[in-house]
Write a structure and sequence with these properties.
- GO terms for molecular function: DNA binding.
- The chain contains four helices and ten strands, in the order βββαβαβαβββαββ.
- 18% of the residues lie in helices and 32% in strands.
- It has a ten-stranded mixed beta sheet.
- The relative contact order is 0.18.
- Strand 6 and strand 7 form a beta hairpin.
- The chain has one domain: Beta Barrel (At1g16640 B3 domain), CATH 2.40.330.10.
- The chain is of the alpha/beta class.
- The longest helix is centred in the middle third of the chain and has 14 residues.
Amino acid sequence: MASPVHIKEEPTDGQHVSSESSMKEISDGSLNNNDSGGPSDPPYIVPSRSCLSRSQKKIVEAKVRAIQSEAPIYIVIMKSSSIVVSKQMLEFGAHYAAAYLPAREQTMVLQCKGKIWNTDMVIRNGHRLFLRGGWPKFVCDNGLRLGDICLFQLKKNESKLTMEVHVISREEF
């Protein structure tokens, strides 16, 4: 029998959620590479206000398995606030940001399909992390649309804060 894998859902607006209510269990041991039998970091994290359909979840989990990231992958379903020209910014959930991203404003390098974009990671309200400058160009250059899914993989051992972005087009599910 496959061991349960915990997929963390987290708030993106600074609200606090108990660890029990912020975790979903799925029975797919192939995602869990932890041989110790104890809890480990979830393989991916989805903001609590986002919900993956069954077909989206299946595709995301296959992609996560293929990526084999050391840190959990942050999953974002593109909403109007991320892609509409007048708003274009991307928020990282508070819990993901606190656990995996530095707590200071700086440049974040995004890599996608062999190209790079420098974006500005900014902090609002003391703890909310957003990508701004450079994010609109990333959106445009990659043809991101409402409903597309981006998987943000934190790259270790880079001289600059870097994330590889894997895009799943809405037509794939």
